[in-house]
Design brief:
The complex is a heterotetramer, with 2 copies of chain A (508 residues) and 2 copies of chain B (435 residues). Chain A has 508 residues and is α/β, with parallel strands linked by helices. Chain A has 16 helices and 12 strands. In chain A, a hairpin with a 2-residue loop joins strand 8 and strand 9. Chain B is an alpha/beta fold and 435 residues long. Chain B has 13 helices and 15 strands. Chain B has a 7-stranded mixed β-sheet with strand order 2-8-7-6-5-3-4, with helices on both faces. Chain B has a 4-stranded antiparallel β-sheet with strand order 11-12-15-14, with helices on one face. A two-stranded parallel sheet of chain B has the order 1-13. The longest helix of chain B has 39 residues. Chain B is globular, with a radius of gyration of 25 Å. The chains are: A alpha/beta (508), B alpha/beta (435). The structure holds pyridoxal-5'-phosphate (2 copies).
């Protein structure tokens, strides 16, 4: 018996059912059918132009092979269905360590779409850009107050971009002193962007081993800092969630030897309102507005990575800088020492707007309270599972706690398996196998967003999984069982990469 | 919860921060405000802007119609509030859309592969340049002077401290396109890549094919850059290009004062392992169903650390999603019609300005932007006259190109109405009267 | 071993896992915890007032027992999670017969939220209400053009409300002629709102049996129309999806005998641009803007049920009417014969805005094409399953086709079971057991929204289910198996109704 | 598809429509427009309105702050584009929120049960009246003259043709509350229900308890009506009421020119089978999990046909969802603070107007609305003066209450700023000068 779709009946059920409805949406290219359109344009109110004449026939393309041809409702359904295959903060706890997945207030989406802001053009006359310039100026001032630094640039598009900007600033500063030096020191616990950044900025990277307490080892630092060292990049609290207690001494040591201290501010959610890097002796640092200041992560950006600096670095900041004279704001491009631009225009402005809205909503005290709650939540989880998972460093945790899978790996269960099993319990996993100094790390950052109720469910899930690891490891090793997509074969993806869709050979 | 932790106050949890490093004052930030006050605050800022003005600014950031469905879909919490899809099993939504994004970018640019996005066009260029250097193991770059000036500034910032000297290639004073003789004179077997933008900053379709031929003759790669994606709907892609990098803001995001945008980087399959940034690849799950995941992570900072192809981590996923929706809405036919409308509008405006004594500075074929010199009065006068009519004129080029002082870079897209264009064109005449 | 949540570990997995994440959200009341807040208000800028003094202590309430106390993120998660338990047009085919579940363009949501429209107040000066009045006037004129009627009122809030308005209009008209009469005739195929409406308007209802072709039986109508009959309420195309071919003769008969013809316009999606009720002799009719004109159904409203009338009925329309003089619009309240208001203010204005946007987007020809596609789709489905299901009436189908479960019931499978099984195939079911003249009816209305691809999948599903009914009926009888919620016990709900949440007895 | 159906053209499918009944012209509706043109069209209509005006209008439709999360959630396609949850297994989202809605309405009104919504307040009243008639098997209704005049108009329209005569009960000229002597004089054992609004149309807390006592003495039910839900945050519910019906627009929807709104109907458990409209009930699914579904359908038109408790089918589900979100956001504390702010604002405005020679017409306690008479000049003058300041004044009562000609019904909510109120109050003085 034939089916309307042409498939034999037997096959049918596979084609649509997959646990529940809307789970079998094809790629948009597979949905396309000749001549369908979903777009609208007003009729042209000027004479049409012959493209071949205007551009020269050789410059005019034929049709874009394979490009989608679908109707509006198919578009709505396609992306709506795909969206249901995704986990998100809006659906529950998202404890990715080091990512600060906090709630993204909807207000900020509304604010960023206000007419006059969302449609501002970077080249519109400054007399007609006072509002958008004011937003930058106010945000800069709040961020320098929060970090305890002298000045802030909002140009970097994300944290790693901020790191690059920061290291280039240090380089320019040192050069102005006569020697840019050649080495950047980085603790072995650091995030991958740190060494990658140093290299991009033309520095050699030397790793500093952490001590048994998960902190920078002063001795090895002492030994490492010679006059080839331009800077140390330190994350504080570090990636093990521990505050670097010697940070002030570290700064002093570096400064003694003509080096600078760069701080990766990705973990500022542990410090805002409680302590200021500027007071630690930090010379340059970046912030991740999409972490600490809650701009939506959007599946992986856009973010913003403002860089805050001490006054001796200020002359080197990217052009342009905002200046105020008699209540009027203007851009100053005349900065002979500037490292130049790190991005066109004024950074991810729409993200800056959201971050400012977040700061205004919290106010100074509210920001500090968020910090307190974030640290409380992390410690509550730590306490909740400390008997079930191995804690490699017992130093006090700040905004996140890092465990290891050493207990579970006795039964062949690794951190990656535990993570997948968490999915079956309805949670997004923690960060897996980072930082590198912890073998089989479970890096858990709940943020202030979570209520005790959600934390308890999460703790229960981890306890339950710990028990499963002992009693029924296969349950964990085969997880997730409850999702549309079962365990994904990442090795296969890398072996023979398929990164774009291609029409089936038979041209169907 | 305090009880569970056996502490009196949350403050106790901060004991590990040395007393001397604690911040004992209150932040100099006013008390929290309600959402209604915050909306008022930003509405007030908006009033200090250019609400309700017509505009002929482009120069790297373009005003285009944005289908309502883009925001309707991109604001769904499942997309808006998720992060980089590290956990493939519960991130197939984002992974699938990125795979579609990569595919559409490749289709548009005529390349074989594309990544998951870069920050923007200006940062995609240096990344592409470093990639070319890795591929060719060479250390010089040639960049056309008609590459967006702010892109060139970023390029300089990135390369200043690497041994990647950049030389600028002149543009032909008549055509406004790259000066091929100058290019050839600067080419050598030390050159890793030649960077040409098309449409270039002056809005002109540039000589990418000729540039490719020259570059390849010297074993250098050709990097084709674009900042106005709308042109891709009608412009023949440069098959000879080795890397295509550019900006997709036109397809996704409002001008938003220049950001967020979404950079793209596309290339030949053979260079895939040299690409910067995230890549989504196709695979299967344990049940044999098609699935997607992040792949070739060995290129990236979290695995390769100092040896990574780039330090990029967070990219522009949500804007890439918006672009994916946009490209899907317009599709095959729509992108073509969109490009044709831009073509027609810009020509109408150019003619109208000519009719008002303005003259085109360059003879090369332009897409939706062109450089024009007022016949009477100077560019400032023209734009002042326009502002009085709530029209924001083209970009005055003097600051960026001293040799073009007094000239304007004028852009017209499908959003510019005929009356707006007539009204602005008239300023080229009217302003004269005021001399 | 105790869990953080206090539950013994054994229980745990039940508590969170249920096929997949976010499927165990409790009621908002169960989420509440003392003192939590999710609201924000600006500080009061005037002196506070003592409520007891201002209102009298006896008028001031204590706290609202049981009312929610939750944070903003909990609110977002609560409703986002609940939303994922719902099927919708945005997710796929929604072929509810008689409901015209077509795609709801997002544009219309944007349009309805434009400042100056969304915040207009019904009592603002008419000089400052010209825009919103113009929207009504234009919509009225388009709807009268589409229906071929003389005038339209936009006041009714939904179809049934429009019916009531229409019958009251007929009553007022007949009264003005001297006798309101006492009976309204209604075909046995009619929707339940028709008889309910007639009764609400104070009429007795007499049923007219349909003939073997599913249409009004002229003979029995002849017999039934005497001078006690005020009107006949007919749906055309009728609820079997068949055009009432004798409609003109029906009208003539009624008019001969001093009665009026009311048409239920719920099925106008089969006629727009192709035929106009005004040309059939219809005196009064309603439209469902949330059906034919695509305003979102919103889980069951809001809708709008404008009523269109011939000129002899116009004087009786609800107050106020919009009049234009020298380009200025004004409300005319001075209508001595009007039946009065059927709703405060100007009806569901926001819905009217969306409907006008829909009409403007389609234009006259576009509306007609939508009709053609809607009828084509219904017939395509009919053709696709006519060998698998019994077709009670073989008259040509318009916008919907109605089958019966008589073949499947041989195996004990009823239309309700087939509907539930469709859910497993990823579709919303058709309308079940309506119209009443078809025993075990499957009433299928795809609308113009659906592509051939989606229709084919739907046809395949119904074919496959027909086979299951024969071979593995239990599969069908126990459906749905693939949803978060399995078959719901509706009998139990009605036996001892629990319609509001109450705190558990133990006060927990 | 045509082939599959064996037809030449789609037109063939319409063969069953007699030729003479086919419409052969083209509809007199202009060609389809793009979304950008449509947005422009409606923006143009919006400009013909009162954008940017402050307003002191209430009178049944109220301006309140609306948390942005309401639209963020209500525009999710799963809610926006579903229909009445006939199929419980894939409609638990809507069913659960309606169950929460019913619960909150009951909690707010102090009743034991509430339905899934009515069209609006004005139509909920006649439905409640018919319900009372069914319960008491009586045929007369008494409605306070201080019930919203448009609600009374709707009541008349509904009842005109049923034998349900309505009599109006006077309000006390001093207090503005119901005249209890007049009420008593009109009560009899034929009266099914007494209908009293509180806060009444004049913004006054009315004597519902006294009215209940009288009504019950005659075996009649008391129906309590409200149009300003914000008052429920502070007003003691009338425990003695038999049915509470009203309007929740304040909790959900912008003024939107008076619609859509959302009507509610709450009552005692014992009357549940006499209720109109949809009801969601709790039950279990085949696995024993809690689930919800539409219930007591035997009351409804699709089962009961002519004997149904009402003809309502589609109700206001999405607006009810918005109200549910609103009530959840404000919650226990928020509704109280909201009410207190309204109380304070209205009193501030009343005092300011008094200070400008205006005088309150009634002595009863008011919530956020009050009736005032200008001391100098008339209401029209006052409002004209206000309009010149971009302020829309209160409602002139003359048309609705001839005896109150020259008086204004003025409303102030939490959205009205102090300066706005000062500016409007000043008009009561200023307008005098112009006499
Ligand atoms: C410690 C740390 N540093 C730097 C980064 C890079 O920030 P971004 O992803 O914004 O580029 C991250 C982000 O994951 C991080 O966790
Ligand atoms: C044939 C018919 N008539 C009337 C109605 C009632 O319309 P509404 O639900 O808008 O009140 C419906 C809606 O289901 C219907 O299908």
């Amino acid at each position: 018996m034939r089916l309307a779709s042409g498939r034999p009946l037997g096959e049918f059920e596979l084609s649509k059912i997959r646990r529940h409805q809307t789970q079998n949406e094809p790629l948009i290219f597979e949905r396309s059918s000749l001549g369908k359109i979903g777009y609208q344009l007003p009729p042209l109110d000027v004479p049409p132009v012959d493209a071949d004449e205007a551009l020269g026939a050789e410059n005019v393309r034929g049709e874009i092979a394979g490009f989608p041809e679908v109707s509006e409702v198919e578009i709505i359904r396609h992306f709506t269905r795909l969206s249901t295959w995704n986990y998100a903060i809006d659906l529950g706890l998202y404890p990715l360590g080091s990512c600060t997945m906090k709630y993204n207030p909807r207000l900020n989406e509304a604010v960023a779409r206000i007419e006059g802001i969302v449609d501002a053009h970077p080249y519109q006359p400054q007399t007609l850009a006072q509002g958008v310039m004011r937003i930058q100026q106010v945000l800069e001032s709040y961020l320098s107050n929060i970090t305890g630094m002298a000045a802030v640039t909002l140009q970097p598009a994300a944290g790693a971009h901020g790191e690059l900007t920061g290291i280039l600033l240090i380089r320019a500063y040192l050069e102005s002193k006569g020697d840019a030096r050649g080495v950047v020191l980085i603790p072995d616990s650091a995030h991958g962007t740190n060494p990658a950044t140093a290299a991009t900025a033309g520095y050699k990277v030397k790793e500093i081993a952490s001590n048994e307490r998960g902190m920078i080892d002063m001795a090895s630092l002492e030994a490492a800092v010679d006059d080839s060292v331009a800077a140390l990049m330190v994350t504080n609290p570090n990636t093990v969630g521990i505050f670097e207690q010697d940070i002030a001494r570290v700064a002093a040591l570096l400064h003694d030897r003509g080096a600078q201290l760069y701080m990766d501010g990705a973990n500022m959610n542990a410090l805002v309102g409680v302590a200021r890097p500027g007071d630690f002796g930090v010379d340059v640092m970046h912030l991740n507005l999409h972490k600490t200041f809650s701009t939506p992560h959007g599946g992986g950006g856009p973010g913003a990575g403002p860089v805050a600096v001490k006054s001796h670095i200020e002359p080197f900041l990217p052009v342009p800088r905002i200046r105020e004279e008699a209540g009027m704001l203007r851009y100053d491009h005349d900065l002979p020492d500037s490292i130049g631009r790190v991005r066109a225009f004024y950074g991810n402005f729409g993200v800056l707007v959201r971050a400012l809205a977040y700061i205004l909503a919290h106010g100074g005290d509210g920001l500090r309270n968020a910090t307190l709650d974030a640290v409380l939540n992390a410690n509550y989880i730590r306490k909740g599972i400390e008997n079930d998972y191995h804690l490699p460093y017992d130093a006090p945790s700040m905004h996140e706690c890092v465990f290891s899978d050493s207990k579970q790996s006795l039964y062949g269960v690794k951190t990656g398996d535990i993570a997948k099993r968490l999915i079956d319990y309805g949670f997004h996993p923690y960060t897996v196998s980072f930082p590198l100094i912890v073998h089989g790390a479970l890096m858990i950052e709940p943020t202030e967003t979570e209520s005790k109720g959600e934390l308890d469910l999460f703790i229960d899930a981890l306890k339950s999984i710990a028990r499963e690891a002992e009693t029924t490891p296969e349950l964990v090793l085969e997880a997730p069982q409850t999702t549309r997509t079962s365990r994904v074969d990442e090795t296969r993806a890398a072996r023979k990469p398929i990164v774009i869709w291609e029409p089936p050979a038979d041209g169907v | 919860m305090l009880a569970a932790l056996g502490i009196e106050s949350i403050e106790d949890l901060f004991a590990s921060i040395p007393e001397c490093l604690r911040y004992r004052q209150r932040l100099a930030i006013p008390n929290g405000r309600s959402e209604y006050e915050i909306l008022d605050y930003f509405r007030a800022r908006a009033e200090e802007g250019a609400k309700g003005y017509a505009s002929f600014l482009g120069a790297g950031v373009y005003r285009h119609f944005r289908p309502v469905v883009i925001d309707a879909l991109a604001t769904r919490g499942e997309f808006l509030t998720s992060y980089t899809p590290y956990q493939a099993e519960i991130s197939q939504g984002v992974l699938t859309t990125i795979f579609e994004f990569q595919t559409m970018v490749a289709q548009l640019t005529g390349m074989e592969t594309a990544n998951a996005s870069m920050y923007d066009g200006s940062t995609a260029v240096p990344e592409a340049g470093m990639m070319a250097a890795r591929i060719t193991r060479r250390g010089r770059l040639l960049a056309a002077r008609s590459l967006h000036p702010e892109y060139r500034q970023v390029l300089n910032t990135y390369y200043r401290h690497q041994d990647l000297p950049i030389e600028t290639v002149r543009y032909d004073r008549d055509s406004g396109q790259i000066d091929l003789t100058d290019l050839e004179s600067k080419l050598s077997d030390e050159v890793a890549a030649v960077i040409v933008q098309s449409p270039n900053f002056f809005g002109l379709i540039d000589k990418t094919r000729e540039a490719a031929e020259l570059a390849h003759r010297y074993g250098a790669l050709l990097l084709v850059i674009f900042s106005e994606a709308a042109a891709l709907g009608i412009l023949e892609p440069t098959a000879e290009a080795d890397i295509v990098a550019g900006e997709l803001q036109s397809f996704a995001h409002p001008t938003s004062y220049g950001g967020p945008c979404v950079g793209v980087l596309a290339t030949k399959k053979k260079y895939i392992r040299q690409m910067p940034g995230r890549l989504v690849g196709q695979t299967v799950d344990a049940d044999g169903n098609r699935a997607f995941c992040l792949t070739l992570a060995t290129r990236e900072q979290h695995i390769r650390r100092a040896k990574a192809t780039s330090n990029i981590c967070t990219n522009q996923a949500l804007v890439a999603l918006m672009a994916t929706v946009y490209m899907t809405v317009f599709g095959k036919q729509g992108l073509r019609e969109l490009a044709e409308q831009n073509l027609a509008k810009a020509r109408y405006l150019a003619d109208a300005i000519r009719a008002n004594a303005g003259s085109l500075v360059f003879s090369g074929p332009f897409f939706n932007e062109f450089v024009v010199r007022p016949g009477l009065g100077d560019s400032a006068r023209v734009n002042d006259a326009a502002l009085e009519k709530n029209v924001i004129g083209g970009l005055e080029l003097g600051r960026l190109y001293p040799e073009l002082d007094g000239a304007l870079l004028v852009c017209a897209t499908e959003v510019n109405r005929r009356e707006e264009m007539d009204s602005y064109a008239a300023c080229f005449g009217s302003s004269s009267r005021r001399i």
